[in-house]
C-alpha cells in the first residue's frame, strides 16, 4: 500500500529495529504510533518525529495494555493500516547450568513477550484494520509485519526459549495470513541475522565478534537498523508479499562449533 498519511503501529519503538522502522515509515509519510515499555525513550521518539507520531507505554505481553494502546491509536489517528512487531527480549540460559534446569520464569518471560506479545498485537491490530475501507489502489485493509530471527532455525547456546519464540512467530505467519486474507490484510515476517542493536550487546563480546568473523558471509558485518527498516517499508508497500518469512542476514550461517 501507499504509505502517505497511513497509520503505522510499531512495537519495540524505543530502540533498535523498532526505532529504525518508525523512522523509515515516517519518512514514507506514515503517521507513527510507537509502543514500548520504555517511557523515557518513547519521549525521545516523539520529540524526533513531532506531530507525525504518538507513543504509548504498552507491554505487549499484557492483553489489556495492548488493547488500550490500539484504542489510543484509534482515538488519536482514527485507523491502523500497518502493524510492525519489533518488541522482544533475548533472556538466555543453558538447558542445564551448574546442575540446575533452565528456569521456567525465563522461558515464560521470553515466550510471553516474543510470541504471545506478537500475537496480542496481531489480534487487536487486525480488529482495527477490519474497520478500514479497502485501499483504493490495492484493495488492502492492512499489513502486519512480525520479527522472527535466524535463530528460529539456527539457535545459539542459551537460546532454547528465544529460538522457540522466534520459530513460533515464523510458524504463525501462514495460518494468520490465511485467516486474514478475506479481509484484505497481509501478514509477513522478517528473520534478521545479527543486527547492531542493544539486544546484541547482550552477547559475550568475543562471541559476537567471532560470529561476525566466521558466520556472516557478505557484507561481513552486523546489519544496521535502517537496513532492516528498508525491508519493513518495502513489505508494507509491496502488496504481492504475503504469508512468508523473509531473511535479511547477509548470508549468515551458523557453524557447528
Ligand atoms: C547469536 C547469534 C549467532 C549468529 C550465527 C549465525 C546464525 C544466523 C543468524 C541468526 C542471528 C540471530 C540473532 C538473534 O535473533 C539475536 C540474538 O541472538 S541477540 C543475543 C541474545 N543473547 C544470547 O544469545 C545469549 C548470550 N549468552 C549468554 O547469555 C550466556 O552465555 C549463557 C548462554 C546464558 C551462558 O552463560 P554462562 O553459563 O554464564 O556461560 P558464559 O556466558 O560464560 O558462556 C560459557 C561459554 O559459552 C560461550 N558462549 C556463550 N554464548 C555463546 C554463543 N551464542 N555462541 C558460542 N559460544 C557461546 C561463552 O563465550 C563461554 O565460552 P568460554 O569462555 O567458556 O570459552
Ligand atoms: N538485533 C538482532 O540481531 C536481532 C536479530 C533477529 C531478531 N531480532 C529481533 O528484533 C526485535 C527488535 O530487537 P532489537 O535488536 O531492536 O532489540 P532492542 O533491545 O534494541 O529493542 C527491543 C525493544 O523492545 C522493547 N520491549 C521489550 N519487551 C517489551 C514488552 N513486553 N512490551 C513492549 N516493548 C518491549 C524494549 O524496551 C526495546 O525498546 C526483537 O524481536 C528481536 O528478537 C533482533
TrEMBL record:
This is SDR family NAD(P)-dependent oxidoreductase. It comes from the Bacteria. GO terms for molecular function: oxidoreductase activity. Belongs to the short-chain dehydrogenases/reductases (SDR) family. Pfam families: adh_short. The keyword Oxidoreductase applies. Keywords: Oxidoreductase. Gene3D superfamilies: NAD(P)-binding Rossmann-like Domain.
Amino acid at each position: 500500500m501507499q504509505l502517505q498519511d497511513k497509520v503505522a503501529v510499531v512495537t519495540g519503538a524505543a530502540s533498535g529495529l523498532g526505532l529504525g522502522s518508525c523512522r523509515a515509515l515516517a519518512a514514507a509519510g506514515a503517521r507513527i504510533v510507537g509502543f514500548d515499555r520504555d517511557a523515557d525513550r518513547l519521549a525521545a521518539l516523539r520529540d524526533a518525529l513531532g506531530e507525525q507520531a504518538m507513543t504509548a507505554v504498552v507491554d505487549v505481553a499484557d492483553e489489556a495494555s495492548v488493547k488500550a494502546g490500539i484504542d489510543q491509536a484509534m482515538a488519536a489517528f482514527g485507523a491502523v493500516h500497518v502493524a510492525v512487531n519489533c518488541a522482544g527480549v533475548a533472556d538466555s540460559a543453558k538447558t542445564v547450568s551448574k546442575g540446575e534446569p533452565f528456569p521456567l520464569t525465563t522461558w515464560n518471560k521470553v515466550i510471553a513477550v516474543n510470541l504471545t506479545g506478537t500475537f496480542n498485537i496481531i489480534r487487536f491490530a487486525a480488529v482495527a484494520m477490519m474497520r478500514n475501507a479497502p485501499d483504493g489502489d490495492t484493495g488492502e485493509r492492512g499489513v502486519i509485519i512480525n520479527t522472527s530471527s535466524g535463530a528460529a532455525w539456527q539457535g545459539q547456546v542459551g537460546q532454547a526459549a528465544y529460538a522457540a519464540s522466534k520459530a513460533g512467530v515464523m510458524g504463525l505467519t501462514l495460518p494468520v495470513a490465511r485467516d486474514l486474507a478475506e479481509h484484505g490484510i497481509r501478514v509477513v515476517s522478517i528473520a534478521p541475522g545479527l543486527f547492531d542493536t542493544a539486544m546484541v550487546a547482550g552477547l559475550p563480546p568475543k562471541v559476537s565478534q567471532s560470529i561476525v568473523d566466521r558466520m556472516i558471509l557478505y557484507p561481513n558485518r552486523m546489519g544496521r537498523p535502517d537496513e532492516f527498516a528498508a525491508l519493513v517499508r518495502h513489505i508494507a508497500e509491496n502488496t504481492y508479499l504475503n504469508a512468508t518469512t523473509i531473511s535479511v542476514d547477509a548470508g549468515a550461517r551458523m557453524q557447528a562449533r
